[in-house]
Amino acid sequence: MNRKFLSGNPIIPKPIPKNVSVSELVDTYYQAYNAGRLREACQLFVENMLKPDCTVGMSITGALTPAGLGGSCLVPLIEAGFVDWIVSTGANLYHDTHFAIGHTLYRGSPFTDDPLLRKNAIIRIYDVVFEYKVLLSTDSFFRELLRLHEFQGEMGTAELHYRLGKYIAEREKLLGIKHSSVLATAYRCGVPVYTSSPGDSSIGMNIAEVALDGYKTKIDILLDVNETAAIVLHAKKNGGKSGVLMLGGGSPKNFVLQAEPQIQEVLGIDEKGHDYYLQITDARPDTGGLSGATPGEAVTWGKVDPDKLGQAVVVYTDTTIALPILTSYALSKVKKKPLKRLYDKREALLGGLYKEYKKAQARRSKTMKNKTRIY
Question: How much is the pTM?
Fold first, then answer.
């Protein structure tokens, strides 16, 4: 019986050498507590989620891109084929665009005189600071794009971001900017990027402004619900697996997870849940919020396959600490994967979802008729 409980690797207090690699640091020296969970997360990502048969959805919350994690971590992961679809807050996409159009954000201090910053037109995101005119310039850039003919109409957020990404990529090229934004990279790599709350960011605010001016950009969030469900269903129906990498919590976390309840509960299609669950969060589970909800709780909703609960890892730490380590670890362990280019396949995937939905409807109808005959 003791052998069962003592089956893990022994903890060895081995001295850390000079210039140790990130992968060796994680595998050898991250032995317990949340360091142990980060090791497990890195290994789950590399050994399971990055296999060719797994489709990886990523959710992005918290002010990650103002801290530089867009270009340093998210872009390399997308380019390596390690992320196949994304749900992000609009704020992360908006602030990442500052860099792409030539603006600079600076390291600052959280211990400052905020009324004095306001007086001097300085914006603060904890210890990141930048000039107020950066916001005005970025707003102007987005409004200029949103007035173009190709944005006049109704579309999902994946299409909106793809079209915006094309122009952001062109602006980077024109300015000779080496930093590549998340939207520009996703555009080039065919990775669909969704925003679960499109009105809750400066991009949405600028769409609202151009609407007041008579322009016709409209966001079809219901299309996003079905497209994301179609992505997950396609992965599972074709013998593959679905993994979710959640950076923080909030609405984007729920949006990547709810694809499974949409498939099972709402559309009535036979499915079991995501196969791999990896979350980096600082949220507690006992407050009842979605951000801190555990993978076990997600099982009860059909979000996670109960048979795969052992393949779930939650790391309780700051994403700005864990994500650079996870990114470096993955890039050192796994070669670049072929891009799935799911953006280009959206219509076909929706068609597949619709066919399965109609089959499920027919089964429901038959079941109801049989019950009616019995009574």
Answer: 0.95
Whether residue 4 lies inside any domain: the answer is: no
Q: Taking Cα atoms as reference points, which of 193, 251, 227, 244 lies closest to residue 75?
A: 193
Q: For residue range 26-51, what is the model confidence (pLDDT) as tens digits?
A: 999 999 999 999 999 999 999 999 99
The answer to the question of residue 375 being in a domain is: no
Q: What is the CATH number of the domain that holds 151?
A: 3.40.910.10
CA distances from 89 to 60, 108, 267, 329 (A): 6, 23, 26, 25
Q: 251: domain range?
A: 27-361
Question: Would you say the C-alpha torsion 160, 163, 167, 168 has a positive or negative sign?
Answer: positive
Tens digit of each residue's pLDDT (9 = 90 or more) over 67-108: 999 999 999 999 999 999 999 999 999 999 999 999 999 999
CA dist., res. 279 & res. 58, Å (int): 10
Number of domains making up the chain: 1
- DSSP designation for 263: I
Cβ-in-10-Å burial (0-12, 13-18, 19+) of 137 comes to: middle
**Catalytic option among 303, 345, 359, 369:** 303
Answer whether 159's CB lies under 8 Å from 152's CB: no
Respond yes or no: is residue 303 known to be catalytic.
yes
